[in-house]
Design a protein that fits this description.
By secondary structure, the protein is an alpha+beta fold. It has a domain at 2-130: Gcn5-related N-acetyltransferase (GNAT) (Aminopeptidase). Helices cover 29% and strands 34% of the residues. It has 5 helices and 8 strands. The chain has helices at residues 18-24, 44-59, 112-127, 142-151, 179-183; strands spanning 2-4, 8-11, 69-74, 79-90, 95-102, 132-138, 154-165, 168-178. An 8-stranded mixed β-sheet has the order 1-2-3-4-5-6-8-7, sandwiched between helices. Strand 3 and strand 4 form a beta hairpin. Helix 3 crosses helix 4. The chain is globular. The relative contact order is 0.15.
């Protein structure tokens, strides 16, 4: 599976991603400061397990359709920079939640995240009958809120003062998009 944008490609995981994943999935990388930082920072062992699970996908002959995760790769040099994924918020009610993380801080602010989010959203609407898709973040991650808003997501929920963390108090934020809104953009 491969979805090409102008600046990024979303693709299946490959065994040759192993080295780059080892660089990106370490506890010291800055992406941990914005991606649910109020949860305990993953240990090296946790991140190694994640790396192994992603690489196991590269060995599978039958992958889920739709894919539940793809690698985000910068097109200019085929550099692995992040991940997109989705999970069931509630399978019984067909409620899917997206995730996107750019692990490589050197590409932040270049529009790659927005393009990856748009490709992923289009793919999921094209391959499922989902009525809506959403993502969750917190007020301490204004870049994610801005990226989702620019892509066409709207703020649907804000749980005020939901997270005490790092000496401050932050809101939990959910942004979503309906199928008909996405089709009409």
């Amino acid at each position: 599976m491969r979805l090409d944008g102008e600046r990024v490609t979303l693709r299946d995981w490959r065994s040759d991603d192993a080295g780059r994943l080892s660089e990106l999935l370490v506890p010291e990388r800055p992406w941990h400061d914005t991606n649910g930082p109020y949860f305990a920072r993953p240990t090296a062992q946790d991140l190694d397990g994640m790396r192994r699970r992603l690489l196991d996908r590269a060995e599978q002959e039958m992958l889920p359709d739709p894919r539940d995760t793809l690698a985000v790769v910068r097109r200019s040099d085929d550099l692995l920079v992040g991940i997109v994924s989705w999970y069931w918020e509630s399978e019984e009610t067909d409620w899917r939640r997206l995730e996107i993380v750019l692990w490589d801080e050197t590409v932040w602010g270049q529009g790659l995240g927005g393009e990856a989010l748009s490709l992923w959203t289009s793919y999921l609407f094209d391959t499922t009958d989902a009525l809506r898709l959403d993502l969750a973040t917190y007020s301490g991650n204004p870049a994610m809120i801005a990226t989702a808003t620019r892509a066409g997501f709207v703020e649907e929920g804000r749980m005020r003062k939901a997270r005490r963390w790092a000496g401050g108090v932050h809101d939990a934020v959910v942004l979503g998009v309906l199928r008909e809104e996405w089709a009409g953009r």
